[in-house]
Amino acid sequence: MATAPEDDPPTLLVVLHQERSTPGRVGERLKARGFALDVRRPALGDPLPDTFANHAGLLVFGGPMSANDDSDFIRAETRLMERALAADLPTLGICLGAQILARALGGQVAPHAEGICEMGYYPLRATAAGAALMPWPGHVYHWHTEGFDVPAGAELLATGTVFPNQAFRAGAAYGVQFHPEVTREMMVTWIERGAHRFSRKGAQPGEAHLAGWALHDGAVVSWLDAFLATIFATEEEDGRAIALDEDGGI
To answer: Cα–Cα 20 to 30 A to 244, which of 9, 17, 118, 196?
Structure first.
């Protein structure tokens, strides 16, 4: 983990893809745990750092573009992911971010063979490796038309019924196809602005999104706190882990 000046909070580099995008609930929970967020929007011209000397971790969020796009900022974000992997930097990719991570590891990103998308809540099943980390929610929120394969050397953590690869880990980097960052307010905005997409094969109507929130969000929140703590440990948490080891704990 990169070090920060004394008394300064550890800073996470956050990559967003649209002007009004936010890190949502993920950002709120990380800030509550003592992290500062350095938000960059390379799709809008923000530069990315040349080194991770001032960053304790990396998060790359979703967006409407494809990880396969031949654009300057997608190429720059892929190189950023490659550098994070080489540095063993704690990293989380969400939806598009997970797809860019998969590409950086040599994996493939593509639409579903039958043209099916996921928009709404869909079932999730932890693999043995995922279940060993923590309990996972039974349904999670999606908004995507492409998926990733599991890159060579990566470990599948969770699967789905439509897009089978839902979460994976490679060293200190994690990718998830779904959107744990979405608050209810964000969901309402997405439904209002994206209602024209619900005619696509596999998409759920807007009212099903909100009904799914009431049924499933509590389990997502419980999982998210454990998941973020697994990826982005604070210095205090690192210290407690060392103390447990020295005392004969896990």
So the answer is: 9
Q: Is 179 designated active site?
A: yes
Catalytic pick from 17, 179, 209, 216? 179
Q: What is the pLDDT of residues 76-123, one digit of tens each?
A: 999 999 999 999 999 999 999 999 999 999 999 999 999 999 999 999
Respond yes or no: is residue 95 known to be catalytic.
yes
Count of Cβ atoms closer than 10 Å to residue 197 Cβ: 14
pTM: 0.91
Choosing from 142, 181, 209, 216, which is the catalytic residue?
Answer: 181
Q: Where would I find the beta strands (DSSP E) of the chain?
A: 11-15, 36-40, 57-60, 91-94, 109-111, 118-123, 125-126, 139-144, 146-148, 155-159, 165-170, 173-176
Is 17 tagged catalytic?
no
What would the pLDDT profile of 37-68 be if each residue is shown by its tens digit? 999 999 999 999 999 999 999 999 999 999 99
